[in-house]
């Protein structure tokens, strides 16, 4: 079994390299976004929403590329219920996330009409929104602004399929860790324009 895995890995690594040094790609992407609370930076939680972005890649070698990414996402409004002293209460939350990041990626499979890649980016991100919380019968509700800016670390993987000389379609998964706030998972579809 080890020998078969070694042969497969060798074939993948020695496959013809169809991305070319100096090639650039411009991509637009969008899809489902979900949030993962890390520690306890705010009250409540956010419903899944959607994210969208723009990414530029420039190939430094036949497999390695530099990427720059602009991203925006939202939970599209969250409503949740809490049992309180005055009965079941509706609470709400809302957020918009924005980020800019840069880093490197690597095409670990690069064939004529298909490639798969991994990438790691770092940058800065911000969240703008609010959460609400029921405090007590005498105090009532409290709305907390959620406005924070923090460093951002992202890791992702994806697939691209060439549909013509200049166009690719594909999909990707990305995890974004926004330091002092939380993390988010995105599964997106994308379309890319290739500049030779």
From TrEMBL:
Residues 1-19 form the signal peptide. InterPro entries: Beta-barrel_OMP (IPR027385), OMP/PagP_B-barrel (IPR011250). The keyword Signal applies. Coiled coil: none annotated. Gene3D superfamilies: 2.40.160.20. The keyword Iron-sulfur does not apply. Transmembrane segments: none annotated. It comes from the Bacteria. Keywords: Signal. Residues 8-192 form the Outer membrane protein beta-barrel domain. This is Opacity protein-like surface antigen. It comes from Hoylesella shahii DSM 15611 = JCM 12083.
